[in-house]
Amino acid sequence: MCNGRKYIVKREYVRYVMDEKQKEPDGKNRMENFSSTVTITSVDTGVYNDKDDLYDPFDHRDKKHATSDGGSLAHLLKASLGTGILAMPSAIKNGGLLFGAICTILIGILCAHCVHILVRSSQVLCKRTRTPMMSFAQTAGAAFRIGPKPLRHLAKFAESFVDAAIGATCISGSCVYVVFISTSIKQVADYHTGTDISVRLYMLMLVPALLALGQIRNLKHLVPFSVIANISIMVGFAITLYYLFQDIKPISSVNLIASPGQLPKFFATVLFAIEGIGAVMPVENSMRTPEHFLGCPSVLNIAMTTVVALYAVIGVFGYLKYGELTLGSVTLNLDTTDVLSQAVKLLIALAILFTYGLQYYIGIDVIWGALRVRVSKKFQGIAETLLRIFLVIVTVIFAIAIPDLEPFISLIGSVLFSILGIAVPAIVETVSCWDNHLGTYRWRLWKNGTLVVLALLALVFGSWVSMVEIIKLYE
């Protein structure tokens, strides 16, 4: 699920900054809130005390523009149900019908659990540090600041690492968008012109539009583009479903389980499609009743159940429809000679083009936020403009280098989403619970250790298989 709506990052919702460089008179670290009147207490130990229960971070949040439970559910669904769903038939192809369907559900449960422990850890850390709310990166930093003393010096690194991972995820997702848009346009254009122009040339043709979208610096200016994108993708998706449920092949015509060499690509693609952890903390932070985000039933459980069910259904029926011919995005399988299919390809391409602006905005917001302090105020405007131009060119260069959706998607899923969506939440919970809160026989330590191992396996094998596929493109 890599799309621009996934990562509505902290700076649009959260203005709380924890600066470890500021010290109390006694030399201890102090986390300070620059946007709230709430006092952030000094924390030099990870041990709970009775006063922790007296501070309720939810009571200290600014709820002037808070969202309802329904609105928060809509945000999560919007963040999750993006272009990644179009890659699910390809994922099932790489897993097999039976194995892929079952494991899609299991991976969905795993992702939901990781979101749960991240949010729960953030809420506990807010209480222990007397902070109303935290972003993903701030949660990681706070966990190490109050965790075991030998690890506290890693707090700043943890925070920077999460920010960097979110930025890299958004920029790499933008590269996928360039490949998808160009491939869709090429299919329609080549059919009508009778030519076979390289997809790389179409990528170069997109550069002026991408540069223009990349210079948008205010989120509200992207709203009209998002509205058009949402309408286009809903119409295109509805027509795609119409095609998918026609002339479905029998189950005997497809593989129930794929070869072992394909399975890493399956796991990486599903992680890419489902994982949307970057949007979770902003949504939870903006809720009017954040206590409803977790639990049963809860906003998180309802959203994840809906998302996983839809992804499994689309993946299974898309694979049954096109079998081993399934491409990286199921819309690319639609018959180009059909006018309605051509409309779908162009509608989805338009939606992704306009979503590129949001995806890129989020990535540049993180990257420029880290670089701004290193540039003189006199030259910040020019520096930001040049950075935006440079990164647009970078996304196009990477897209030209890897003009195939399937290995590109699995590479990003295995490298970025396995770490950001699984390993980091597991590490955050372990560090924040290290002192007497790991449970009987330290079951949280064993559980989270297993999650980290799974993330590393996905990273190693998924990236290895993806790189082999990418190398084959040049042979």
From TrEMBL:
Molecular function per GO: L-amino acid transmembrane transporter activity
Major site of localization recorded for this protein: membrane
One Pfam family cited in the UniProt record for this chain: Aa_trans
Record key words, sorted: Membrane, Transmembrane, Transmembrane helix
InterPro entries: AA_transpt_TM (IPR013057)
Membrane topology: Multi-pass membrane protein
GO cellular component entries: vacuolar membrane
Transmembrane regions: 73-92, 98-119, 161-185, 197-216, 223-245, 265-283, 295-320, 340-364, 385-402, 408-428, 449-471
Compartment(s) where it occurs, according to its Swiss-Prot or TrEMBL record: Membrane
Source superkingdom: Eukaryota
Residues covered by the Amino acid transporter transmembrane domain: 72-467
PANTHER family for the chain: AMINO ACID TRANSPORTER, GH04538P
Designated name of the protein: Proton-coupled amino acid transporter-like protein CG1139 isoform X2
Organism: Neodiprion lecontei
Gene designation per UniProt: LOC107221040
